[in-house]
Amino acid sequence: MSTKSISVAELTPPCNYTGPIIWGGIAAALAALFVVANWTLAVCAALIIVALSAVENEPFLLSIIFLLPIGWFVKIDLPLGGKDARLDIATAVHLLVVGGFFLRRIWRGRLSIRHLLEPRLTRASLVLLAAALASVVVGTGGITYGSLKANVRLISYVAFYLFVLLWVNSRKRMRTVVITLLASTILVGAYGIIQEIVGDYTSLWLYLNPPEDWFLPMEHRVPSFLNYSNTLAGYLNLMLPFALACCILEKSGVVKKLGAWTLGLGILALGFTQSRGGMVAFGCVLALAILYFAKRWSHKVLLLFGLGLLGLGVSLLGNLLDPAHLSLNANGGFDIATRLLLWATALKLFFSAPLFGAGYGNFVELYASYLPFSWIPPGIFGVHNTYLQFLAETGLIGFTAFFYLVFQSVRQGMRQLLRPADTMDKILAFGVLGAILTILIQGFVDFILSVSPAFGTLFWTMLALLVVSARTAQPNARIGLTSATS
After folding, report:
1. Phi, psi at residue 75, to the nearest 5°?
2. Whole-structure pTM over 0.85, yes or no?
3. If 460 and its partner were Cys, which of 157, 175, 306, 481 is the partner (CB 3.0–4.6 Å)?
4. Comparing C-alpha atoms, which of 456, 398, 454 is closest to residue 141?
5. What angle do CA 148, 97, 458 make, to 5 degrees?
6. Domain positions in the chain
């Protein structure tokens, strides 16, 4: 009986080294690229964002919504912007998310343009976007760094609206997005309160918002994660009406609890912004809530009287705590004089090009040449008035388009407020109506739309949720066209 010797190589199972060699080579190449070219890290991050958006990964997309108020700016050198140019990371991420989402839906033939354009709010948003772009092409100011930045942000707002409109295709997902927005605003309010306690911006804020040449100390006017205190006031005023409706209309559950926390922390943070326009705007929302939710006229009158006394008390307390900002001394007088001159300049720009204006985003680039005084620094200020800003930058065309969007939003909100399918419909309707009211009130002294990506994206997200709530409430709604599983 013979024996055959068996070698060790024959006992070892066959192995395919091709895969490990390829992945090892890729890893080594990426590591080398990271060493010699920092931009490759950004490219890889962009590809990951596009990929996760394309597969519609729900935790990832919810995290993008949760991080809406957190901006991040990186200083860059551009021919149009020079040393003041900054890359808006949040806007870039939102555009990548939308791009990945729509590319895959188009690739798989799951995008119905007719269904997408069906809501009036969609068409109104696109009309405003078209008016803004036309003002740059046809207007007198031309293409500048300011107009490029403002229009790219407006494109990202409307694009994110379309993404939310398609992705949120069920009542369950709509409720999840609502909870995410409430939790996000709680974080915003808490961080603002921390800044007030510390008495400074904090190192995290300075990292996310690199100081510019005109950078000023905080002086107890908190911005939270946003770029300025008035911007934070506008952002909070978009969510506070919604949180107020959650507290009143929800009987119990996580939405009511989150709404209560959002309302409490949000009101505190709003007070710490010391934004007069923001606080007056929220006072008008409280008056609207009293008129709508209070059942008896005697209760309405009593509550409105109490609200008036509260407003008077807050005003007197503010003058005592911070007379430099809330009274007519040196700083307050400078602020008022600056705004009056900027308003007059905006009217000059409007009358010089009444139809299309000077170009959306161009006021900050042009106002210095119209001012006879050198004590107002150039390239910093907006008009500080929503109505005059639209007139100066987009003319009557853009001004009309903006109010057409407001009209359609109020119309949709009123329809759902009077005939809601459930409590969430009513909450969303009151929230959007209250948010629009704050925009119109605070708009007399501020223009936040092109200044804050967080504000604009949140506003159009709420409009999308309003449309989704109406669609998903209809038993025969064509939600299947956009289902993630279709």
Report:
1. -70, 135
2. yes
3. 157
4. 398
5. 70
6. 114-482
